[in-house]
Amino acid sequence: MISMANFGLWWIRWNGSNYESRMSGSLNEFRELGFGYAVVLGQPAHIQYTGDAETDAYNLSEYLSEHMNMPYYVTIPFFTPSKTPRGNITGSFEGSYLGKMDQCIYWIIRP
Question: Does the pLDDT of residue 81 top 60, yes or no?
Answer without folding.
Answer: yes
